[in-house]
Design goal:
25% of the residues lie in helices and 25% in strands. By secondary structure, the chain is an alpha+beta fold. The longest helix is centred in the last third of the chain and has 19 residues, at 189-207. The chain binds a DNA duplex through helix 5.
DNA sequence: CTCTATGTTTAATT
DNA sequence: GAATTAAACATAGA
C-alpha cells in the first residue's frame, strides 16, 4: 500500500533491520522486478534513505534502490524461513552475530529493486519531497501557473510533489475543499496553502497509523462534512472520489 | 467472466 | 519542445 507514508514506514523498518549490518547472502527470482545482479555479499549497510516513493540503501560501496510499485512490501524473517508466497528477492545480513533475512514480496510485480553504483535516473528526476523539504509555496505556485491540466494531475507528478499518490492526492483535495478537476493554474495562493496543510496533515496521520482515508473509495456514501453523496469520477486517468458540494471549483463559491 | 486496483513508463496526441 | 492522455505492464480479489 505504498505512497509516501507507507514508504517512509518501510524506510524506518529497513533501517532498523539493515543499518550497520553486512550482507551475507542474496537471492532473486524475478528478472522483471530485480534488475541486474544483486552481487552484494560482503557489503555493509550505511543507511537507508527515501525520496518520494523510492527507497535508497546506501552501502559502504554502491547503492540499492527499491520501489514498491502497487503491491510491494519488505519484511524481516529468520534466515531459515522458506520462500514466502510472491517473494521476489531476499537479502540476508549479519550484525552482532545475529542473522536477519529481509524479504521482498510483490504479487503484482510493479515494484523494482536495482543495485547501482550511483543514483539512477528515476531517483534523480524526483522533485521536492513533502517530508524532506516540504512545499515551497512560491515555487509551486509558479510551476502550477504554467500547467493546463487539473490540479489532481499536478499532485501526482513526482517532479512537483514527490511521494504523492492517488489516495493522498484525493484526500488532500478533500481536506482542502478543492475540486480535483480544477485547473492547476486557477488555484489561488490561499488554495495552495490549504492544500499544503492538508497534505502534511494527511501524511502525519498516516504515519501515526491513524485512519486517514475519509473520501477515497467512499463514493455514494454521505460526505463526512456535509452529508452530500460523494461522487466518483476519473481524473488524470485515476479513480477519484470527491464531494460535489464542499469541494468547489473556486473558493468562496 | 467482468471489473477494478495505492504505480511508472512510453507512445501518441495536443 | 512541453504538457497531457491513454495504453501497457502483471496479477489478485471482489
Amino acid at each position: 500500500m505504498p505512497e509516501l507514508p507507507e514508504v517512509e514506514l518501510a524506510r524506518r523498518a529497513l533501517r532498523r533491520w539493515m543499518r550497520g549490518a553486512t550482507i551475507v547472502r542474496t537471492a532473486a527470482w524475478d528478472r522483471a522486478v530485480v534488475r541486474g545482479a544483486l552481487a552484494l555479499v560482503g557489503r555493509t549497510v550505511r543507511d537507508v534513505g527515501r525520496r518520494g516513493k523510492w527507497l535508497r540503501v546506501e552501502l559502504d560501496r554502491g547503492l540499492v534502490f527499491a520501489h514498491l510499485g502497487m503491491t510491494g512490501d519488505f519484511s524481516a524473517r529468520a534466515p531459515e524461513t522458506p520462500r514466502l508466497r510472491w517473494e521476489r528477492a531476499r537479502i540476508d545480513l549479519t550484525r552482532g552475530g545475529k542473522e536477519t533475512s529481509v524479504r521482498y514480496v510483490d504479487p503484482r510485480r510493479f515494484g523494482r529493486i536495482v543495485a547501482a553504483r550511483e543514483d539512477i535516473a528515476p531517483w534523480r528526476k524526483l522533485g521536492p519531497d513533502l517530508l524532506l523539504e516540504g512545499i515551497d509555496e512560491a515555487h509551486v505556485a509558479r510551476v502550477l501557473a504554467k500547467r493546463r491540466g487539473p490540479i489532481k494531475a499536478a499532485l501526482l507528478d513526482q517532479r512537483i510533489f514527490a511521494g504523492v499518490g492517488n489516495i493522498l492526492a484525493n484526500e488532500a483535495l478533500f481536506r482542502a475543499r478543492i475540486d480535483p478537476r480544477r485547473p492547476s493554474r486557477a488555484l489561488s495562493l490561499a488554495d495552495l496553502r490549504a492544500l499544503a496543510r492538508a497534505l502534511h496533515a494527511v501524511i502525519g496521520k498516516a504515519l501515526r497509523n491513524g485512519s486517514w482515508i475519509r473520501a477515497y473509495g467512499h463514493a455514494g456514501e454521505p460526505c463526512p462534512r456535509c452529508d452530500t453523496r460523494l461522487a466518483h469520477t476519473i481524473v488524470a486517468g485515476r479513480t477519484t472520489t470527491f464531494c460535489p458540494r464542499c469541494q468547489r471549483r473556486s473558493r468562496g463559491e
